[in-house]
Amino acid sequence: MLLRTFGWSFAITAAGLALAGVLWGWQGLAIVGILSILEISLSFDNAVINAGILRKMNAFWQKIFLTVGILIAVFGMRLVFPVVIVAITAKMGPLEAVNLAINDKPQYEHLVTGAHPAIAAFGGMFLLMIFLDFIFEEREHKWLGWLERPLAKMGKLDMLSVIIALIVLLVTAMTVATDVAHGGGDKSATVLLSGVAGLITYLVVGGISGYFEDKLEEAEDDEDDDSPAAKASGDAGSNGASKSSVSGVGLAGKAAFFMFLYLEVIDASFSFDGVIGAFAVTNDIFEMALGLGIGAMYIRSLTVFLVRKGTLDDYVYLEHGAHYAIGALAVILLASIKYEIPEVVTGLVGVGLILLSFWSSVRKNRLEGKPGEGSRAEPEVTSGV
Length: 385
Prior knowledge:
Shape: globular
Largest sheet: none
Order of helices and strands: HHHHHHHHHHHHHHH
Structural class: mainly alpha
Radius of gyration: 22 Å
Number of strands: 0
């Protein structure tokens, strides 16, 4: 199973490192390898979040995410996105930006780094909303009960997540956005505009995908309730099993499409810090795209692995750890508008929170006498890559 899931990632790693060695020698090979490890360490929590959403989608849309999605992740975010940022901030054409990236790498790096406040505000607000909506929702399992129980009660207030996110954005714009580390000067207006754009993006994409998901679940529940099999299972007191089989079909159509868009925006938000951090290693856009692209492949493969193994069901606190890591990343992104924060700190915080949640899940399973991983049949997931 390991080879089947990570086979394409292993193959692309070998091909990518070989290509780097041919094009740029041993130094280029080492740079690409370092960037791959950087991307994996920074985005490990991304795989857990992706798996939690991907398991709701049917096999076709899972394949779309793992094929079309990887093209968007590698070429869109790791290669095209920095060039677009330069074109917008420097008010030049796309071809001029590409020429600058190839022939004037120091200036290209300066322009991309100068756009960091806007990028960090957009990504930070989007990720912060994901975290806030998670902790304010009532859940069956609570990792940090002393914190999550009162927060779940507070979450009954309408629009609380939006209110808190806007307060955080205002505080950020009035404090860390002045005299910023990346480019200098007052970036309050830029941070406010970009942060609001990130908030709107989350509300629109997340809201539409959630709407279609709810409509689909309602239709499936109605169909399930009206079927003779469902009535028989209800008489036998096994409605839970019936619901499980229905939910196992997975989202399709408009619901899956908007869920796919939601996943891609999440991936983009996670990749912001990796793209910016990559400039500490190299300012060659092709080395950067190759190294970060290899890392992105492993995140996609890890997502499939988590879905196939049912890991999120076996280890119930993993999603909690990943969402807390998202909250930490959101804070780090916003703080990085003014302060230089090493990428190793970002990576260690995320991985550390996930490892803690994994250990808590194992401990819970042992106390309850559960077998843990591998206790269920594998759900159908088509890797497609």
